Amino acid sequence: MDKFIQVDGLVVPLDRANVDTDAIIPKQFLKSIKRTGFGPNLFDEWRYLDHGEPGMDNSKRPLNPDFVLNQPRYHGAQILLARENFGCGSSREHAPWALDDYGFRAIIAPSFADIFCNNCFKNGLLPIVLDIAGIDDLFQVVTATPGYHLKIDLEQQSIIAPNGVVYRFEVDDFRKNCLLNGLDDIGLTLQHVRKIKEYETRRKLEAPWLFT
Amino acid sequence: MGTQTLYDKLWNGHVVHEESDGTTLIYIDRHLVHEVTSPQAFEGLRLAGRKPWRIASMLAVADHNVPTTDRTQGIADPISRLQVETLDSNCDELGITEFRMADVRQGIVHVIGPEQGATLPGMTVVCGDSHTSTHGAFAALAFGIGTSEVEHVMATQCLLMKKAHAMQVLVEGMLGKGVTAKDLVLAVIGKIGTAGGTGYAIEFAGSAIRALSMEGRMTVCNMAIEAGARAGMIAADDTTISYLKGRPFAPQGELWDKAVDYWRTLHSDEGAQFDKVVQLDAAEIKPQVTWGTSPEMVVAVDGNVPDPARESDPVKRSSIDLSLKYMGLQPNTPITEIQIDKVFIGSCTNARIEDLRAAAEVVRGKHVAANVKLAMAVPGSGLVKQQAEREGLDKIFVEAGFEWREPGCSMCLAMNADRLESGERCASTSNRNFEGRQGPGGRTHLVSPEMAAAAAIAGHFVDVRNF
Hints:
heterodimer; A: alpha/beta; 8 helices; 14% strand; globular; B: alpha/beta
């Protein structure tokens, strides 16, 4: 997994609540057996005017000029500013894969759906929860200021705005450490092989029907 | 350790290791696998030179991409076909039990787990699918995971997680005639909102929950995720135990007796504390119909489409506006005046035998309305289909003008050929009314099987209590 230490990136605002994973990456693209290549189909139904299917040349498809990601001022954005319950719905990890493949490194929202939030951390994508007042401020200033950048410092758990305002955020210590060091969860868990085997031995005695 | 909730008992029974910050290694008893969220996990395992930790814990089935029409020619879409073949070859290579497309046991992963007795009380059950919460109906700790976690469970038989908060949804009283488990859970979602359960594990309790069959309980737990909770669960009781008796993967003989003794302890202790309690009166719940693009956008069938002008919160008002525009609905329209184009009876929420019986009862001797272009009944598994056919339900559906299909996820998410065309409106027994969920531009109204069946006959929503 890629490390996440600091990101200084252009911010794009997506001003709607309950953005679900079907909207982030529609189901027809879930037929892929790969982890990469989902970026061009991120928010496919909002981003293009035609209906997208796997295998199409996305560079030739008509773009929806009203969709925020298509506005030239937001090209190259690395930070997505969103509303509550971002990433609700299905457990598809294709959603963070698509966001990552597009170039996003962090999402700032008042709340995230649990499974999506988990999936982000597994892919070096940082979901940041800020209070509604902070989110409302950011929506205003991002919309009003072309080229608006934020600096995210995971070590310091801070977002630093160009005017010097600092927004602090919480992140679980374990996940923070994994992101800062790009650690592989499976490798970490396998350090506990002895404990897993001890658990199994005990459990087989207590509940043998689980092991038949 | 004092009184415990059901969630405490399930959690504590699976702790392998705990870090100082509360991050816990939890042991996984059952790993269900389907074709969409597993290929990258198998690939990751292979690239790292790892093998699955306990192959016997795994049960695999293809359900999302499978056709529900004639299967003798295989899957027409080459990309769908490759995904299913990839699951087949991964299972072959590693020796994982898989129900293939031609196997009568094939079906929706959340239907076949319980049907086979592969889901048992006291288990931790995971699957790369958010509707894994369904299995919590058996007093199991069951939740959906992403593909990285699928790989993690394969490699280590464990997951790293933090304990969620505990919520009790207490529903006392009796559901009225024509009011179902689906209406109950939609009413819960309408009350707490689609993010109301985020960060919680929900235990559904109370006399209305105890009175439900296992099928009804599965419908309720299935949609816990639509209220934001990864896991929903219900205490084990006689209903749970008699459902499981004799199922192929369930224990037998002495082991059965031993298991039953343990299962009887799987309930919240008297006086156990929850972080949050939500109460509903079953008698007040009416048949529910969603009007928008989130499951929380739901009203009783005798209500109207809401008016955004009456919403003071600007974010909510804008959500209502966007939803009504997408759904092609005018504010204040009575729900019973909404005409439909298609009907879908199926999905991991409502495709079990009891659902099909209830819908068949409504359409018996009647015919689908002229404005309904397609009405489908899609059983949840090959065994459900077989049972329904033994009872003659297929004939009732076909005579009423329904199509009787092969089992799979079908038009719940339209990954196979079953889908809505842009602008089409569907009465659906599935679980998500998101934009494009049932096909790009498609408009979904979530309802119970009885309500979907009645809408098929009338051509618009009707109150099944007076139908």
